[in-house]
Structures are given as C-alpha cells and as structure tokens.
Write a structure and sequence with these properties.
The structure is a homodimer of 338-residue chains. The first copy, chain A, is of the alpha/beta class and 338 residues long. Chain A is built from 13 helices and twelve strands. Chain A binds a DNA duplex (30 and 30 nucleotides) through helix 2 and helix 4.
Chain lengths: 338, 338
DNA sequence: ATTCGGCGATATAACGTTGTACCTTGCCCA
DNA sequence: TGGGCAAGGTACAACGTTATATCGCCGAAT
C-alpha cells in the first residue's frame, strides 16, 4: 500500500504517482498515464503514509490542543468538540495534552507536540489568565478563553455584550427595579485575582444597568460561584423583600438561588425571575428551565482552528457573541402583571 | 537539533549518537565517547524527531482515542482524562476523533489514525452497544464502556456489583422496606434496546434485593432517564405513601426526585433517602449532597491505556469496581429512628 | 543532417532516524 | 610473523514521501 506498489501496478515511476495523486500543477504527465495511476491507486486502496509525508514536507496536518486541567472536564469540553469538528472538516487531527495549569507540564507538553511536528497549537483555558504567552518554538498558536499578551490570537466570549444581554433581557421583560445581583458587589474594590472575562461581564452588566438608569436593589459578592453560595446569598436577599429578579453570575449560583426561592415559598418566574450565565448542564436540568447567557464553547473551538488554518491572521482578540438561551425562568415582575 | 549536529559536536558518527541515546544494549561505544555524546546532546538541547523515528521504527508512541459523539461531552470526559494521564505517564500522546456513532465516520477515523501510524486505538462509548468490533487493520484495540464481540479487551464498570452496592447501602442504613425504584420496572418485559451495562445494573439490584428477602414497594420505568421523568415518577410514588427510600437509576432521575420530595413537603434524608448512580456533576450540586454509585470514568480510561501498553493481554472483559460516593442523602428510615 | 525545444516521464536526493554490516586498529597467541 | 579476535566505531540502507534535476525522444526549425 505504498507509492511504489501503485507505481508498479500502473507501470510508472514513484515520482509520477506522487505528482498525479497530489495534483502537482507543474507536472507533465499524460492523461493516459494519469488515468492508469488514479485507477491503480483506487484499486489498491492506496492511502498516503502521513508519517513519511510529514517527514518530507514538515507539515503534519495535526494540531496540538493544550488545556489546563479544567478544560477537559465538564466545563469546556465544548471547546474541544468544536475544535475537533472544525479540524476534521479541514483534514486535521488533534493531539491533546493536559497541563494541570502547571508551567513545567506545559513546557513539556509543548516540547512533545513540537517533537511530533504539530502545525499549530490551541491553548484552551478555563479561567482567562492574563498571561497567555507560551514558548512555542515558532509554532503558530491560538488562545481560547485565555487573553494573550499580544503574540497570538485570542478567542474570547464577548462577555461585555453578554453582560448587557442579561440585563436587557430582564428590562425587556418589564423589570425596572427589584433586581438583585448574585455573585458580585460593585461597591467592593475590584479583586485583582478575578478573571479577565469575569471583569468584562461585570462591566457589561454595569453599563446596561446604567443605560436604563437602574441600580441594583441588592448585590452580594460570593467567594466561590458554587450552589451553596448562591443559596445563601439569594436567601438573604429574599428575606429583605422587594426582590423580583435575581441576576446570577453563573448557573451554579442560580442553582442555589432556585433552592432559596423555592424554600421561601416563591415561584419562578411568577414571583421571582432568575437569569444567569454559562448555559451549564444544570440549566437544562432545572425546573423551570433556566434562562442563561451561554458561553459559546463549540464556536470558540471552531474559531480557534480556523485561526490556525487560515493564513496570517493578525494577532487580535476575537470576541465571540454569547447567545442567550431563553427557557422559562424570566417573566414580567408581579407588579407589572395584569 | 538533529542527530547529525550532535554527532558533529561530539566528533562521532550519527549512528554512534543514536546508539548511545537509545541505550542500545548491543552497542560497543567507549565510556569516553558516550560521555561526549551525552554532553553534546544535553548542551544542544537535542530532542529526537518523533516523525523520523516513527517512520523508521513504525512505532509512533501515539494512541488513537475514538468516541461516539457523546463521550466528549459531559458524561465521559473522565474517560479521556484518565486515558490522557495514563498515556502521558508512559510517554504516549492521544490523537482524538469523534464519530457521532456513525459507522462511516468511524471507518474514516480509523483509516486516518492508521495513516498517522497510531500504536493502538481506544474506542470509548456512552452506551454499551453490543457490537464492539471495528475494522482496525491490525491495530491493537481496547473498548471502553463498550462490550466487545470477543476480538478486543473491554473495559466496563462492574455494574452488577454496583447495583448490589446501592441496595446494600440502603439496607445497611436500616431500610427493610419502603424502597421504590425510579427508572425501571422489573415486572415489565426486558426492552431489547437497553444498554448492556444498564441490564447488569438491574440484575445487581435485583440480586441484592433478593439476598435480603426484599421487594420494591413501588417501581416505575422511565423512557428517558431525565429529571422530568424522575420528578413525575417520584411524585406518584410519594403520593401513595409508605415510601422511605428512592433508588434512582441515575443522577438525573434523582435530581427530579429531589424536587418531588421537596414539593411533597418531605425532607431528604430524614423522611426519604435517595440513592442513585453515575456521580454526575449534579450529585455535588444538589443539597443535601447525593449519595451515588459512581461510574469510575477516569480509572476506566487509565485501564484502557494500560491494556494497550502492557503486552498481549488476553481479550477479556475488565470489570472496574464502582465506588460509592457517600454524601448526605441516605439515612435510617423514619420508623427505625429513635 | 544536425540542433533545438518541449513534452513525458524518470532518477535522485533529501527529511531524521535506526539497525546491521562492515571496517579499522591493536593485541594476543600460535 | 601472520592470523584471529575483540573492541570501538563508521558506513550504508531503509522507512515512504516529495521536489528538483535530468534524461530520452520526437517533431520542427536551421
């Protein structure tokens, strides 16, 4: 199943077969020979040996996909899915590595990928660390969910617009007040450790609130954006009364908030609307379905591959729109209802 | 950064360098030359070109990881994680492909992996289809979560033991009756479309119940094992009363059951114990934490790689124990409490 | 009739390894 | 003194491609 065997079957030289099968433009092979070669290749089921081809051309048609530990877990497997689909469409495969967020492991992974001749590397991360530079030995690079230092293109969710979307959705449903923010407190000083994307999400929320001349009825920061904290925060907020909408900074917080609302004897969305971010698996499991601004993981993964395959993209930030997934957790506030 | 450059630096031939760096046992290189070579390689930061090595030796130190669509999503990314970690420990990388469960795509993926010279292929699936044979062109194969037809080793969760574990946990907590089964009805004929692993889970549950001389107070099959069905089933069961434990066939059903219990004004675990299977992300999000019999995804992935790296394993089923993750949803039944 | 040009294809040299066969040198022993 | 042998290397071929230089041939131009 090598070129040599096809050549023998077609009665030509190896080089001729190579030229024909690669549609080499400046080759002078007669139509008849060409036909014989193509037929022979087909009959023998010839498939080029990618290893040999890579050695010769130093193009492997393979990309590395490097992620910190979290990416492969639930959260961002979507990035991998999207990247995988896009890669296959272009004839590429993905060689994957996990770094557990450790610099030494990342170094090692990059080196190993380089040894294997990858044509490019996608760096995917859960948290948008600020430092997105990697010593990639000249291999083209794209960052996903990870703001770069300028060297490489970064694919990021458009968190600012997403933040605005969430607020606008509440406003359009009729909410003009009684909105509480679960997970962040704008009155507190900005924590330096907060991810870049989260900060943008905050900014979008603040801007859209301001655009409508609104203020939060209540707001509370949460150290961890976990159900437990969402439950506690929402509970406190509901006790004070006058809250008709909970804007939660992610679905896990919203999950906790749901429980607090239920426990308080209130109904979603009749008494309290809930909206959040991420479109986690939880969002579909909850009853009623949680309306949430989705992180477009698959699309981000696909765009990463495109940035790698399309030549010479300028090093920029690609902001991917965050679509809102409307389910059943947002309605008009009680006061506004007939 | 090639062997040739190291050779020149050390003042020896390329072959000598190769022999030394590979610890070739039947090579006769003097300790002095050996030292010079090692030093030169270190100083120059030499790393072997895997492509060339693969071409020469036809061993790529790369495995293919082929999954149906679902595997990369939430459910079994653990398999990938485990496989990845185990592979790296042995110096292997993973080349991944998705088939969407489609035979043609699988065919194509296998061919492409073969073109790239993978040393083995892991087939991972969400549902344990019965047919686990693949045309792998002589490439060693392991099935994960996928019962093979005999040709290849299959790594499967020990569902029978897991089923027994779930029941035993309830019994040991003091439950001697009032147990309802959410998701299956033993009185109904067996549906042929049900996955093999699910059937074994059923059998384990039935065997352990029988071992304790117990019968289900209630049981209900669910077409989809989704929260919605779990909610509906649990609701009906609780209405009839006398139910003190809900044995749910997966965490999503349990999720729905939680809501039904809460709505009925009952508490978990004081009034009703809940136990289930999978150890989904949901299990940690729920309050109180859901006690569940886990599918050991990571371990399964790791074992798959081991089966590939350890030579000449006989083709068998490897049954991986399902550990129970005890959280807070199981307690003694009300009647048994002081 | 010789040369030229172009067409059709082949021969050859890499790409970086690895494994085997071979070569050189020195030494020992018959 | 020459043959053998071991030690310490080197040379070479091969893995399957691809790109470039080369070759043979036929018709046409000189």
């Amino acid at each position: 199943m090598t070129l040599a065997e096809v050549a023998k079957a077609a009665g030509v030289s190896v080089g001729a077969v190579s030229q024909v099968l690669n549609d080499n433009p400046n080759s002078r092979i007669s139509p008849e020979a060409r036909a014989r070669i193509v037929a022979a290749a087909r009959d023998l089921g010839y498939r080029p040996n990618m290893i040999a081809r890579t050695l010769r051309t130093s193009r492997s048609h393979t990309f590395g996909f490097v992620s910190d530990a979290v990416t492969i877990t639930r959260f961002a497997s979507g990035i991998l899915r999207g990247a995988l689909a896009a890669a296959r469409a272009e004839g590429y495969f993905l060689l994957i590595a996990e770094t557990a967020g450790d610099a030494r492991q990342e170094e090692e992974a990059i080196a190993s990928l380089a040894d294997r001749g990858v044509d490019g590397i996608v760096f995917a991360a859960m948290k948008s660390r600020s430092s997105g530079t990697h010593a990639t030995r000249g291999i083209p690079t794209v960052n996903v969910n990870l703001a770069g230092d300028g060297g490489a293109t970064s694919i990021l969710p458009d968190e600012h617009a997403g933040g605005r979307t969430a607020v606008r959705t509440l406003v359009e449903a009729g909410h003009r007040g009684g909105i509480a923010l679960v997970g962040h407190d704008f009155r507190l000083p900005v924590d330096g450790g907060i991810a870049l994307t989260a900060r943008r999400r905050f900014a979008g929320i603040a801007d859209e609130m301001a655009a409508h001349g609104l203020d939060f009825t209540d707001q509370q920061a949460c150290a961890d954006w976990q159900p437990e904290q969402g439950y506690a925060a929402a509970r406190r907020m509901l006790r004070r009364g006058s809250v008709t909408a909970l804007l939660c900074l992610n679905d896990r917080l919203a999950f906790g908030a749901y429980q607090a609302v239920t426990e308080a004897g209130l109904r979603i969305p009749e008494d309290v609307s809930v909206i959040s971010f991420d479109d986690d698996e939880l969002a579909t499991a909850l009853r009623p379905g949680l309306t949430t601004v989705a992180i477009p993981h698959e699309r981000m993964g696909a765009l990463a591959i495109e940035a790698l395959t399309s030549p010479a993209e300028p090093a920029v930030e690609v902001l991917v729109p965050m679509p809102i997934h409307v389910r059943a957790s947002v309605a008009a506030p009680p006061a506004a209802r007939t």
